[in-house]
Design goal:
single chain; about 800 residues; alpha/beta; Rossmann fold; 3 domains; 33 helices; 23 strands; globular; disordered N terminus; EC 2.4.1.1; Alpha-1,4 glucan phosphorylase; transferase
Length: about 800
Amino acid sequence: MDKTSSPAVEAAPRQFVVSDLADELIECLKYRVGKEPSVATRHDWLSAAIKVVRDRLIDRWIESTRRAYENGDKRVYYLSMEFLIGRLMRDAFSNLGMMEDMREALAAHDVDIDLIAALEPDAALGNGGLGRLAACFMESMASLDIPAHGYGIRYVHGLFRQEIHDGYQVELPETWLDHGNPWEFERREGAYEIGFGGSVRSVASQEGRGERQIWKPTERFLAVPFDTPIAGWRGKRVNSLRLWSAMPVDPILLDAFNAGDHIGALRESNKAEALTRVLYPADSHPAGQELRLRQEYFFSAASVQDIVRRHLSKYPDLHSLPDKVTIHLNDTHPAIAVAELMRLLMDVHGHGFDSAWAIAKQTFAYTNHTLLPEALESWPVPLFERLLPRHMQIIYAINAEVLLEVRSSGRFNDDEIREISLIYEGGERRVRMGNLAFVGAFSVNGVSALHTDLMKQTVFSDLHKLYPDRINNKTNGITQRRWLFQCNPRLTTLIRDTIGDRFLDDIEALSELDAYAEDHEFQQQFSAVKRANKEQLVKVVSERLGVRLDPTALFDVQIKRIHEYKRQLLNIIEAVSLYDQIRSHPERDWLPRVKFFAGKAAPSYHNAKLIIKLANDVARVINSDPSVRGLLKVVFIPNYNVSTAEIMIPAADLSEQISTAGLEASGTGNMKFALNGALTIGTLDGANVELREHVGDENIVIFGLTAQEVAQWKAQDYRPGEIIERSAELKQALEAIGTGVFSPDDPGRYGELISGIYKQDTFMVAADFDAYSSAQRHVDELWRTPARWHRMAIHNTARVGWFSSDRTIRQYASEIWRVPV
């Protein structure tokens, strides 16, 4: 879409007149869906409604693209393995200002827009916070009128659809594309060839400047782009999300087919399909690791080729690439793009190494999202060299350049040099993708103030010493259009009625709500909104799980990827402890509470999957015990996705952000909950540190060890068994779980999980348990004084406008990308 037709032959932009929309719906239904209204299904009406609005979106899309091309604007290219965009209908309708017009137009045909909107499948393009952040960023870039493209993979099945069978997670294919995707446009003419394997040979350079390398892959696939328009607020700009799908260069080996080898004849098609079928194939075995590396190179190489092609369509050469382009790497997954750009510059466009390296280093920026060593990707050198032999040569050359710089500085000892090296030499030789991204980028940012400081002190300490000006902080944010205006229309309406509309365009104007935090009438209205949202969640849980809940209970919610460092296990153990106390002391005035869990565990992550089973086992026992008198319920909602979050977050009273301090890079769930009037119970980890600064100490419940204290405890021979012996409630809860109280069919099911807490307690569950339990009882006391609770909740909503992704993107734009905003 870089070059468009001349204005003289363009159709005029379509208008938003309701009567015209109602007529267009019928026309679209007939000629583009192929149905008469009398026989049209809800899915047909959904398709027609999307296509009618999409036509208006295309007008803005073409105009935005032309404007950026003709003006020579610098562009941002955002490479991410995940884009958890969720349903797009409400995003597009709302951002174009067409939601109410389409509601009225559909109602003219007796169609309820809310019913058909619920039929749109969630785009299964991500797992958790990384992918949702990318989606929020894409929407904010369009809203702030920044020319940008997102690049990722068009996964046919995404991560997986989670079902719970007898309490266990079962992974099934997510079939979100079964009925097509009305938002996307296939651009087969824009396909690129992607190779794997083969050999590299040297040939004389045509320019007479020595030799250049030619890579001859043995496997070749086509990366076919599918473009989705991403609308900004009020339709200011429409940017593109380009997702790559794999196709074979030769769909069928006809000789093999005619010889009777019908399966072998299709092997190239099968290989291509595997590349873009599933997000994050299990990497617990070599085949899964290889597929994941193939995926990362496939989409990164296609994206870099596309970026180079776009640049050369406007400019004569690639020397100006850093002036007109920033390629942003969202974590280490697309780090191979650094080597791919170097390959194109040297092998295709004739640059020497020094010239190519100078261009690349000024083109890439890199966001790090984790301090966990296992998440800083690395690949075995033999695997990397077999799949990408030319890139391995380039990485060795980059490494030599960097290490010679390090050695010549005289500031590093041998151990420090080994940590800086792009090749890990401590055992199995591996390519360190985090180090490649770091040295190949002009900017490396963390995603919260704490995370950025810890990056400098831990995983990148030696690289930070080498390049002390490279690391900077950009605290994550969320788009309020999705996470307030769309998911919580009741609260949005109340805010508009109270402070006016300015916050719709300037979210930090929410601070005007602070003046109403003590207002009894406003507190009651705020509480009524929360109650209505809770009743909606109660209905969903009843329909999906058959569990009856009391909407007057405190709704305590932990929804996120299941991982030991996020400590769902701590939450479950505290639920068991509370269960014991309610039964042992029925005379006390216990607070009615529902503990909600939702999230997926990686298919090969045994302990995370066991935690899901434990949550369901605990729920089964507690929910069916009449002695609890309904005072405690535990609910695990399967197949957590964006649409489920949009129901759960507005209904939450308490937000669980309880990761082991120092391990959560940022978190964005904490921001979404606070924006919707939930109080946070959490550790001083990730963005919780900044959340506390903004909402105030008195409006958040903080407990547990700090990141510094966690490091100190671990350095001082931490002995969790001694702590457990001193905590009667913790010991009793662990014994109940470990001896089979919640698993009578298999008493030893959780023995290893519990013994891990006694022996290593890697994630400091025992160390933080008493503080967490005490903090929960403090929450009980706050809840017993409704006026105080409502005041705190209102302050949370009023004070978190700073956590908008608009603010984050403005900082990226001015401080990293150098684009006007």
